Amino acid sequence: MRLRFTGIAVATILATAAPALAQVKVKLQEVAGGLIHPLAMVSIPDGTGRMAFIEQHGQVRIIDSKGRLLPEPFINIGPRMVTQHHFFDERGLLGLAFHPNYRENGKFYLAYSAPIRSSELERRLWWSHTNVVSEFQVSKTDPNKADPTNERVISELDQPQFNHNGHWIGFGPDGMLYISTGDGGYANDWGIGHNVATGNGQDKRSLHGKMLRLDLSKPDLIPADNPFVGQSDALPQIWALGLRNPWRCTFDPGGDRALYCGDVQQNSFEEISVITRGANLGWRRMEADKCFDFAKPDNHPATCDQAGLTPPIIVYNNCTAVKADCKGISVTGGHVYRGPHKAWEGKYIFGDWSKSFATMDGQIFFGTKGADGKWTMEVAAVEGMQTLPYILAFAQDDKGEVYALTSIATGPVGGHDKIYRIVPAN
After folding, report:
1. Are 347 and 422 in contact (CB under 8 A)?
2. What are the structural domain ranges in the chain?
3. pTM
4. What does the CA dihedral 126, 238, 269, 409 come to, rounded to 10 degrees?
5. Is 207 exposed, middle or buried (0-12, 13-18, 19+ CB in 10 A)?
6. Most buried in the list 23, 97, 256, 286, measured by CB within 10 Å?
7. Chain segment 360-411, per-residue pLDDT in tens
């Protein structure tokens, strides 16, 4: 898939494993088709019942309150982005968020991959691109059209490699804008553009491998209560560190409003984490809940320094290096279900892009928090579908229901991809 690539050769990704026992039965109801790599979808917070989703090649599109896909895009920023590889690419239009006061101010935000900033060319000759988060506004005359000429750049982060971009964006219950960033790409948090000693994930002077938190009402964008404000050895935008490639995060719309992220790991394990203020999620000291050696990524040391680290809530085996009971090769973060099906209330629905790179074999999982605070996961069996498409992302509407955004291709090409609503099977 994209946006979860491990940085190793495709030939080494191919893996097979015995299917896991399915314990949750669901079915997928098609909501929209004929799409090109839909990577995020959110409700438009203006009371109209519409939803907006992004396609990797640069379009934002709208599904109206009657479930109809509008033929014309809300906005197309493709000309502002890098040219993507059709076979596989982790760059593109990566994130979408609407301002909490969108009904009044018409502001929304896009995260995308632009050509490397021209002012940086000489000292960053080998770098790949610049990840940008920008503010746009809806048209004053048409609620289904945005103004492409009115762009306010909020954040720019130069990216050394094409992969591990992260760049989910979303507003928290506190009204702040959160931005996930990957560790800079390639593999093992190592190579061009990475901190040689610690990796970027552990480097508080780098914005790579972090969760950022911005206050858009302030000129400097820095919330006064960010955990590292005023520290000379850390950047003030950082909310949490130790991430590798956080691909799709969400705030629980109910419960304790916690921030959940699926953080793509290296070759052996995948993880789901809850991100809290000042937390260190461990990468590159840890891969999920195991000690990690970037020079020998498949051989995990028995012991390591775990002081101050926040462990993941869910870990499962990656089919790249661990063949026993493996469940995928690249985690896709999901949503806490808050919809009408009471048996699913509070369950975290997430998945994996596929169990193989070359053959689509997407996975949908249900995570459940027990009375003891520990999480378990179950594999969903999908009615009428023996094999699922690649699972690109999940989405949630304002009623709490959860959707799967899928593709039949490894890259942004074809126009045959679909969005499904996940519902209980009969």
Report:
1. no
2. 10-424
3. 0.94
4. -60
5. buried
6. 286
7. 999 999 999 999 999 999 999 999 999 999 999 999 999 999 999 999 999 9
